[in-house]
Write a structure and sequence with these properties.
The structure is a homodimer. By secondary structure, the first copy, chain A, is of the alpha/beta class. The first copy, chain A, has four domains: about 1-35; about 50-115 and about 355-550 and about 570-590, Aminopeptidase (3-Layer(aba) Sandwich); about 115-345, Glucose Oxidase, domain 1; about 595-740, Up-down Bundle (Transcription Elongation Factor S-II, Chain A). Chain A contains 23 helices and 19 strands. In chain A, the strands form five sheets. Chain A has a seven-stranded mixed beta sheet with strand order 1-12-14-13-15-19-16, sandwiched between helices. A four-stranded antiparallel beta sheet of chain A has the order 3-2-11-5, with no helix packed on it. Chain A is globular and about 95 Å long. The first copy, chain A, starts with a helix and ends in a 7-residue tail after the last helix. At the A-B interface, helix 1, helix 2, strand 13, helix 13 and helix 21 of A face helix 1, helix 2, strand 13, helix 13 and helix 21 of B. Chains A, B: This is Aminopeptidase NAALADL1. Chains A, B: Homodimer. Chains A, B: It comes from Silurus asotus. Chains A, B: One of its GO terms (molecular function) is aminopeptidase activity.
């Protein structure tokens, strides 16, 4: 009996133990578990398998199809073609199988400038009332695309209407120094018309710089030297025989300094928003301007009288570039002729749409990763911007399908923006940033911009806030370049462009977003949101083209892309894979894949450049850099200590508030560099590290420009301004360091 | 056997079940539980018992002791007395039994103005070189305190040094309209000295307004009508017989417009920070000023010639207040005399300290509740500011003890600030805000200011951002007023001051923080941090005193408080209980006790006032208020929807990220109203709802002031500015509404 009891006792103990085990582990598997579901949900980290699957699904042929549809007609902002792309984006983002959670349009009433269809702009060579030569009004037709009545005549958007006539002079790139030299050489430029080539100075600056010298009108053209590697003949050299620009091709563009709608500074351009008067708009040319093709430019420049321009002013035309008499040679058929500009541009209010789409986050819906590109083009815009839009649509197709089939939902919210009127000065994205400034500032983790996805098919190119370098590197290591070589995007990039980092040794050379070249501007500079601009680009050993040759012309078409830029669309595919990979890591990682020590490295580099270039001169003027050095040091220390916390953090087994705390520090790091009063003359530039800079010294922009001015003038008040900018950047850096330092340390 | 087996089977089943139960529930109780500790920790809500215990522990005698120590010597900013209070605060906050987690000092090098001890300011009545009368240099001594050599001579801080002589005129309160009337009446004020009384206009404005009329110096005094309910005699009426100001008492003060250090706008005043030149300081008087006692003022005013000033200009002196001839009556012994000001104020850089203390948060250390008060006084400063400091020290004593004994740690971090140089224009708090702008903006939940804790012993008075109304009400309902009546602070407050709310009916009348009266300014206006200012104040049926009579004089002493303001220190105790209660609720509640619908009610009220006062005139000028109305409506809707989410949220059984999301919306609500470019002429005022306002119409300040200007001038450009401010506030309100709307809704 004892034995039996023992046996039963043992059996009972075993049963008891099994009971405990079932109670402890078995029930956990079911819904009635003591471990709440959200505990597991918040511990779900980025899924590498999901990313691999995403990469595998990116389909070059889908991108090609997207591009073909997007580029059927010209779609300049607010035209019927633009409206068709709005509808197309909405249709795709609302698709029941591959669409997003929601998509909608948001309209702004913005100030745009167009040529007058009934009275085209006109450039002529005249002798009294005789017209000897007409500059061509439209680009030459090689395919039906160029014949589309919706191809806008080349013009200088926001250049004033007006009639200007005068003797022609050649002013190189239209920089201040160019006009100074020309003015000195000719003993005055009053009443002249200047012809200048693209490059070296911003479009509008070529006019703004000219006016004070008395120049009355400006022609702008693209020299074959700067864009075509010297190639000029459309018989066998230029498009449609190659990617080079045909002789009649004209780069259109926005001729204004500030981004965003000009009439509603710092306010979203709603119907009844306060608008400044047109006469109060700043940053536009006071004199008429008109862009022309190099065929016509050659006809003018090669006839110019006067002495020979310097070597650096010479281009690819088979003649010597002279300054101009002013005017033409005696021996020319244009002898004694004026050049006449008749510009009829008209500006007015138009409704421009952003198309927005969203996939809501599961765990942190109030954290946004924004991915965007503009939708409007100058003509068909196959590269600019439709290559980027085609890529974005492929990314949203794959992710939309995952969401619709219940296979995935991002941890954070994804917002996709198809911006309007970028070509007129980043207007759609800027108005969006102005309207939602608070919400976006509070919640946005990052902005990814893929505008022109593929300039050329050689290598990845990325510019970004330094915190994002690491995630871009991670993504680019995981994606292979097109073709038979099994080499990563990262390694290929490093081959094409690299630098030596004090921390990492040789790495790909990521750029910084110091200008306002695309829609990242409002995010990076105005809102202080860590931004990225990603594209595929040139092999610089093969071309010196300033930009892809068909840029902003009637030749930027599907055919051009399909035959010359990216046959097979594998570079597009590579960009989609890389940018999508970055997007997913930002969306799904528990800890944001941002690295503040990379920011520290950049600040140290900027500091070193400042010290080398400015410290002695500043000291001579009683201004010392010690506080700036200390600020950079404190930033480095704070970044290191935060990264120590990150690497020692067991985020999976901790309160999600701990990860959130670190993520807030990382998310808000770029915000800490904002100072809305630092640059009163630079519209919406608030980031004291990345604001635009005139000085060629690559360092803190406020300091660089102020010191340059003070060194030139020697004035006490200019040195005071240098001191002011030194204090501004010092406070910004030490303020940013405070945000990185552990909560548990002295404020 | 079968039966046995069945029995054993049943027993086994029972044992098995018990096993399951132990496995399921039993193990949860222990440390090896599957429910991580942090899950319980994050679900710990505010503890009402703890608050009751806190209330019980607030000890009036401790507060009295604190005050006695704090007021032993004069402690004007940067003097030896100030340094002694720095040491005292540090000692208390570092006490091993009752101190905080950490305490430290932070010094700024700031621009302060003092009289010259070796050459006191001097006001005389002169006839040629004969001096007929000397205004007294120091206040009369009733107790040894007034004889302390560290009692600073009355002076107008930041008023310029200079010698001014001229005929005396009486200019009422020194408002622009006062000088206009006087100027018209006398046919010119060039070369005169004006005497004006405190009230009606800011201190410095009395000088700034005077100068354009040719006035060369200004005397300021406190009329017994405005401060003493007419009482004048120190034989039996004024202190030391009552709380009323003795005849020789002089209100000192800061005579400047902008808050913060004047030489380092928007930059923390470190040693080598960029400083503007002294000549570029704005917002100071161009002419010498000097404050005097009413005994001397009576001597001058009652001798003035000229016609009788209007009824509203008359005060309590037993004579008619005339305008002045200019100058004195023929019949006066001062006939033909000038009044002469010799002001020797000197300004320069001094090091001023903030003392900071902290209790680190357990669950959300990166969320800060800041509680502060300034430490510096003009003389002994028993009420201003030491009553507030005595209260703060009692709060930190109780909470410090709880932390040191391991009984409590707040969910969020508590920061205590003892600000320096407030009396010189809120300098310590402003420099702190400038230095830590990013960290504070990102993390601060609220700022609680208790400067003068007890003006008088009648009732609570609170001014705050509307989101904080609810938590102040909750706290004040829980605390009883002093004395035998068992009535809540809330009900007593409602008895003294109330309003009818559309939502709640009759409630206490909480004020708004529309000015820069104390250290909340940098938090509320510059950083957009929801702020509160809490005190005990007058029974308005018993006194019309502009402020407590000893304000900024040598009579604001411990004796004055102990005998007249708060014998027994029970009003101090009540303020400590109420403000401490607010602090604890903000620190410990899982969901922040902020109510955005109360903000909506305020915005609606402001909108209604704007519509009533401005809509017709705006319409006449082609400006419409529809968008503003829509913005307010969208804010109301968003606030309601957020409160629905809050009330339906089961925060205890949800991811803490859900509460954090809502808390971020509430914490950042005031931030959404910031616009750093809205008021370019108002230093550091960025909050478009609460910025200072000149117009008497209590509504959106930018709109109110711009419309007032436009209505006066009728100029088109002034109406354009009104439109601009309408757009600015519209965008701010709709932007704030966006931040409140659910994450899962269109942006």
């Amino acid at each position: 009996m004892l034995k039996k009891l023992l046996l039963f006792g043992l059996a009972g103990a075993a049963v008891f133990t099994v009971g405990i085990l079932i109670g402890h582990f078995g029930i956990e598997q079911k819904n009635s578990t003591p471990l709440p579901e959200w505990v597991q949900q918040v511990a779900q980290d980025v899924d590498e398998n999901f990313i691999e699957d995403f990469i595998a699904q990116v389909d070059s042929m889908q991108i090609k199809d997207n591009l073909e549809i997007l580029t059927r007609v010209p779609h300049m902002a607010t035209t019927a073609g633009d409206e068709a792309t709005v509808e197309f984006m909405l249709k795709r983002w609302r698709d029941k199988d591959t669409g997003l959670d929601a998509a909608w349009r948001e309209d702004y009433t913005v100030y745009l400038s167009f040529p007058d269809k009934t009275k085209p702009n006109n450039v002529t060579v005249v002798r009294g009332s005789d017209v000897l030569y007409h500059i061509r009004e439209k680009e030459k037709t090689y395919f039906p695309e160029q014949d589309d009545p919706e191809v806008v005549q080349p013009y200088a958007a926001f250049g004033p209407a007006g009639n200007a006539e005068g003797k022609l002079v050649y002013a190189n790139q239209g920089k201040v120094s160019d006009y100074e030299l020309l003015n000195k050489t000719l003993g005055g430029l009053t009443g002249t018309i200047a012809i200048v080539r693209y490059g070296g100075a911003g479009r509008v600056d070529k006019g703004i710089n000219a006016a004070p010298f008395g120049v009355v009108g400006v022609l702008v053209y693209t020299d074959p030297h700067d864009i075509n590697d010297g190639k000029m003949s459309d018989v066998n050299e230029t498009y449609p025989h190659s990617w080079y620009l045909p002789p009649s091709g004209v780069e259109r563009g926005s001729f204004k300094t500030n981004f965003g709608d000009q009439l509603t500074p710092y306010l979203a351009a709603k119907k009844d928003t306060y608008r400044i008067e047109e006469k109060d708009i700043t940053g536009v040319s006071p004199i008429p301007m008109q862009p022309i093709g190099f065929e016509d430019a050659q006809m003018l420049i090669c006839e110019l009288a006067g002495s020979e321009a310097p070597e650096s002013w010479q281009g690819s035309f088979p003649c010597k570039y002279n300054f101009g008499g002013p005017g033409f040679k005696n021996t020319s058929r244009f002898n004694d002729c004026d050049v006449k500009l008749d510009v009829y541009n008209k500006a007015g209010l138009k409704d421009s749409a952003n198309v927005m789409g969203v996939i809501w986050g599961s765990v942190e819906p109030d954290r946004y990763v924004i991915y965007g590109n503009h939708r409007d083009s100058w003509v068909h815009g196959a590269i600019d911007p439709s290559s980027g839009t085609a890529v974005m649509l492929e990314i949203t197709r794959i992710l939309g399908q995952k969401v619709k089939t219940g296979k995935w939902r991002p941890r954070r919210t994804l917002i996709f923006g198809s911006w309007g009127a970028e070509e007129f000065g980043l207007i759609g994205s800027a108005e969006y940033a102005e309207e939602y400034i608070s919400k976006l500032s509070q919640r946005t983790v990052a902005y990814i911009n893929v505008d022109i996805a593929v300039f050329a098919n050689a290598t990845l190119r990325a510019s970004a806030s330094p915190v994002a370098q690491d995630v871009i590197f991670t993504a680019s290591k995981q994606v292979k370049i097109p073709g038979p070589e099994s080499i990563s995007v990262y390694n290929n990039w490093m081959k094409h462009s690299n630098r030596t980092s004090p921390t990492y040794g040789v790495i790909p050379n990521m750029g910084y977003l110091t200008g306002a070249g695309s829609d990242y501007a409002a995010f990076m500079h105005y809102l202080g949101i860590s931004s990225m601009d990603i594209a595929y680009t040139y092999d610089r050993s093969k071309t010196s083209a300033r930009i892809y040759p068909a840029y902003h012309t009637a030749y930027d078409t599907f055919d051009y892309v399909n035959r010359f830029i990216d046959p097979g669309f594998t570079s597009h595919q590579t960009v989609a894979r890389t940018a999508g990979n970055v997007l997913l890591r930002l969306a799904d990682s528990i800890l944001l894949p941002f690295k503040c020590s990379d920011y520290a490295e950049t600040l140290e580099q900027y500091l070193n450049v400042s010290v080398q270039n400015f410290e002695a001169e500043l000291k001579n003027n009683g201004i010392f850099m010690d506080s700036l050095k200390e600020a950079v040091k404190s930033f480095q220390a704070a970044a290191q200590s935060l990264e120590k916390i990150i690497s020692s953090s067991d985020v999976l087994n901790n309160s999600p508030l701990k990860a959130r705390r670190i993520n807030d520090q990382l998310m808000l790091l770029d915000r800490a560099f904002l100072n809305p009063l630092a640059f009163p003359d630079k519209y919406a530039f608030r980031h004291v590290i990345w604001a635009s800079r005139s000085s060629s010294v690559a360092t803190f922009p406020g300091v660089a420009d102020a010191v340059a001015k003070a060194m030139k003038s020697g004035l006490k008040q200019d040195w005071a301004q240098a001191h002011k900018h030194l204090s501004i950047v010092t406070q910004a850096i030490s303020g940013a360091a405070h945000t990185l330092s552990e909560a548990h340390s002295a404020l």
